[in-house]
Amino acid sequence: MSSATQEIKRITTHTLQKMKAAGEKISMLTAYDFSFAKIFDEAGLDVLLVGDSASNVMAGHETTLPITLDQMIYHAQSVVRGAKRSLVVADLPFGAYQSNEEIALSSAIRMMKEAGVHALKLEGGIEICSSVKKIVSAGIPVMGHLGLTPQSIYKFGTYAVRAKEEAEAEKLKSDALALQDAGVFAVVLEKIPAALAKEVSQSLHIPSIGIGAGGDCDGQVLVMHDMLGINNEFNPRFVRKYLNLYDDIKDAAQQYISNIKAKDFPNQHESY
Q1: Are 57 and 82 in contact (CB under 8 A)?
Q2: Who has the most CB within 10 Å: 54, 198, 239, 267?
Q3: Residue 32 Cα to chain centre, angstroms
Q4: CA gap 199, 206 in Å, rounded
Q5: How far apart are CA 235 and CA 212, in angstroms?
């Protein structure tokens, strides 16, 4: 059977668990539309995250707070259409799960039914465990998120590294274990000391996904706009830019303008 006709095997939460057990690192990247999801899926990304960072990089908001559940469902629908292999995880946005367990479950069901994603991600520790249990009990996989949790940015007042002090570090460790006990299949650790991330990762039997948390997590995630160099105003030390698309796209647009002004586009070959 040719590779073209072979059935594509979907990455699942079970796949990620086996990867952790085998010591194979998990690759994860955000995606917000069909075209990029298709490219990333074909490239072999294990997980595509429909992040509420869409509020920043797609809509231009200062924080992730304004994006709505309806808007997240729209982005998630688009990504699911482009992903044949990758596990697609979507953020539940601010306000969609914090109030109580019933609202959390209702939001989760809407996202799963209307967008067709394979799992959800929720920010927070012990304080959201009851909602996590409620959602998981309905058969919906949940990924946790600890450390710098952007939906709580006004509480923190800064995007600085979290859990540097002993008390916060101890709470994070307790939160990670509580989330695991509540049934999450993985947990994102954002912008915390590498040594702490290593300790937490080793204490869990579920995978950890790091972003600004060192190399000892079971996987890594970045925002696609940062990794591709589309966003030229955000340059934290944990981002490695694999391209500089901001300048490349700007140069291409300027060349296009120049060709039109010079009456060079379209030429005879490009006309009917």
Answers
A1: no
A2: 54
A3: 10
A4: 13
A5: 12
Catalytic residue among 42, 168, 190, 270: 190
Residue with tokens 């450390």: 147
Give CATH 3.20.20.60 domain extents, the chain: 13-241
Residue numbers of the chain with a pLDDT score lower than 50:
1-3, 5
* pLDDT at res. 1: 46
As a whole number of angstroms, the distance between CA 182 and CA 176 comes to 10
Q: What is the DSSP letter of 124?
A: B
Looking at residue 271, its pLDDT comes to 97
Among 48, 53, 51, which Cα is nearest to 36's? Answer: 48
Q: Regarding the domain delimited by 13-241, which CATH topology (the fold level of the hierarchy) does it fall under? A: TIM Barrel (3.20.20)
Task: For tokens 């949940």, name the residue.
Answer: 142
How many C-beta atoms surround the C-beta of residue 256 within 10 A? 11
Instruction: Give the residue from 122, 237, 230 showing the smallest Cα distance to 184.
Output: 122
- The structure tokens listed for 76 are 């998630």
Residues 6+ apart with CB under 8 A from 261: none
Q: What pLDDT does 200 receive?
A: 98
190 is catalytic: yes
- Closest CA relative to residue 83, chosen from 111, 43, 53: 43
The burial of 191, by beta-carbon neighbours within 10 Å (0-12 exposed, 13-18 middle, 19 or more buried), is given as buried
- Helices marked H in the chain — which ranges? 13-22, 34-43, 54-57, 69-82, 101-110, 129-137, 153-156, 166-182, 194-203, 224-227, 245-261
Q: What are phi and psi of 136, to 5 degrees?
A: -65, -35
DSSP assignment letter at 177: H
